[in-house]
Amino acid sequence: MVRQRAGKKLARMPAEQTGGDVEILRGDLVRVLYEATMDETEYVFGDSITALEETADGVNVTFEHAAPRSFDLVIGADGLHSRVRSLAFGPERSYVKHLGLHCAIFTTPNYLALDHSGLVYGEPKRIVVYSARENTEARVLLYFASPPLSYDRVDGDRQRGIVHEAFAGARWETPRLLELMATAPDLYFDSVSTIKMDSWSRGRIALLGDAGYCPSSLSGVGTGLAVVGAYVLAGELATAGGDHATAFARYESAMRSYVDGCQKLADSASMMVPANRFLAGLMRLNMRMMPLMPWLRDLPAKMARRAASAITLPQYPTVG
């Protein structure tokens, strides 16, 4: 359901129109992956990498808290603001492409009584609320246009303050949602950005997922892209007979066009958050016309499905 500034219904869109996919909540996916690997994988929590030194046969890693260690390879899968990428490839500004938006995502009680459905509220800013966990919770996504912002990424209070300032005066359920954000257990706030690099590896260090090729939170394919990348990278390492250079090259060859297609989704998706009231008016007109133009109505879903399925996964031997 799409609503206008005063909350009046503007249009209704079926789930199939925006992709019709089945979504797995991030926390659930993390738990599944952790439980499947915890017996065979060493996990270290509450620490971070501060230095990398590559040698002829490995990488010496310095940690913020733990003692230094050496590893055969280092794979940076540490997100949009990757520390591994900064240490091995250079500063973030060399690779990040800001799409002119910021977003806040958090969980609230389902006080709007959404029944396996969602609401989109469109001003020049955009609010999306959809039900989750069998309607017991709701996910809130707040998007607003902004140049790159400077703030402490671990300062939740400052991040909430930025969101409050951006949505000050917004109508509909905005004041209530901002109030609930204060007690949300899982606030995520960041720029809407992509990461574009000419190469995802350097020596014995490689990048995976958002660290190497973030398609932005608007693309809707970031998690899938990271999981596919992990599968391909692991498979190539397993079949390369210890030749990491060959494995990294094959990984990039298999993934490059797929990544490019997924990142193009972000370029088009950013237009869904209009930067001013004129563009917001055009967006409302577009929403009204969609039911009358099936080809336009189905276009977002077709684009998403085409990008998400534009790779044939190689078959690798089982390793274990």
Automatic annotation (TrEMBL):
InterPro entries: FAD-bd, FAD/NAD-bd_sf, FAD_aromatic-hydroxylase. It comes from Phytohabitans flavus. Signal peptide: none annotated. One of its GO terms (molecular function) is FAD binding. This is FAD-dependent oxidoreductase. It comes from the Bacteria. Residues 29-245 form the FAD-binding domain.
